[in-house]
Amino acid sequence: MSDSTSRPASVSESTTEKRLAKKTPNDFIFGKVIGEGSYSTVYLAKEVGTNREVAIKVLEKKHIMREKKNEYVMREKEVLTKLNHPFFIQLYCTFQDVDRLYFVLSYARQGELLYYLHKLASFDMECTRFYCSEIIVALEYLHSLGIIHRDLKPENILLNDEMHIQITDFGSAKILKSDSERTTSNSGRRNSFVGTAQYVSPEILTSKTACYSSDLWALGCIIYQFLSGLPPFRGLHEYQTFQRIVKLDYEFPEGFNATAKDLVEKLLVIDPTKRLGSQEMGGYAELKKHEFFKETDWENLTKTKAPPLVPYLPGTSHNPEMWSGHDSRPGFDDKRLVEIISDGFLSEDERVKQLQDQAKTNDYHRFVESNLVLKQGLIDKRKGLFSRRRMFLLTEGPHLYYVDPVKKVLKGEIPWSKDLRPEAKNFKIFFIHTPNRTYYLEDPESRSEEWVRKINEVWKHYYGNQ
Ligand code: ATP
Q: Which of 106, 112, 152, 349 is close enough to 218 for a disulfide, judged by CB 3.0 to 4.6 Å?
């Protein structure tokens, strides 16, 4: 790596670029760690003198050599150096000392899009359209430079202050050097598998060649995931996922919007030359014309205000009106419930007796780590458009375990904290809000208010006096 590299600067940024060039670690005040990669640690930092915030990716030379990742790091730098577009992370400069390499990058303050996807499970049509439009503009630019990303996924889409995308992670990218490579949109040479199992395109798996269109396949997977809550190709292990990809073995869940479905079907096409947006199919102009993007103002995306992120919860056939409602019913005000409920916890003797009974009679006792069950019942746990029936077990501790009632396997636990908040939507539906995720739950017995009341009671017992 050379001592210092700055990317081509826009006119307005050129002064800053010059200032940032040929720097050393002493020119920055390093702050908190904002992320860890397999080969790097990313710090928030301030440039001395200007106070400008940047993200500095620090790579240990020894670690890179040991893991044989020199090429990966060089490629990332090479791609970042070529990029100059608002929808990409920007590389301001690089420098090194004896032990480490430093990449000084633009700081994506709002972090990963994946964080929001995990929190909400899915995005509504407007959010999906907005973010996918930005991804398309970004890909069009990237491909115009002869670069294939090859690892496009929600984790690699960061967000700036205004919640616009900043695509990152170019270690797996492919730069097409020759003109013939560029025009056939194919790297020609066989490459080892790169990318992430769920978003990898069939041609990378079968012929081990990537083309621009491989990024369009990933886009199809992302649109499907934003709207439904899960990526289209899922397996118990990578191999099963790969088999499903090459067989185009996926389904749309009920409630998937018809226009979005048409778009996804035109992107998830085995033959890369038949994908909407590929050069052979008329390029990006044709993709942008799809009905799904009718509302997109392509020329002004950077100036368009990002829509608030909300989940996609349309009604389902067995429960048409429920999921679309957003308001709590009168009488289900959880704050009021916290005030009126009494603390119904047991004396120690009574508790021990009930726990002994539970161990003998309750089939689910083995999942609750010897905690007394305060309430249990079958609940449909919804993630985007997918729903799974689980036995929910609210226990002292407090804990909220959920178990697959058929396979009798503990599937997880809703993490308790002072910030956990249940919210009844109607007789069947209730949400449990936690700092990192909202759980969308449906009680087939229509007793959502009982769950909310009991959870509030437990909350009051453990956190009420804090
Ligand atoms: P791997 O190398 O294992 O694929 P990675 O690409 O996520 O991991 P890094 O690029 O080192 O690794 O980033 C680590 C984390 O730091 C990212 O997941 C992201 O959350 C955060 N991060 C990276 N760059 C920035 C940036 N410019 N602004 C804000 N956060 C960033």
A: 152
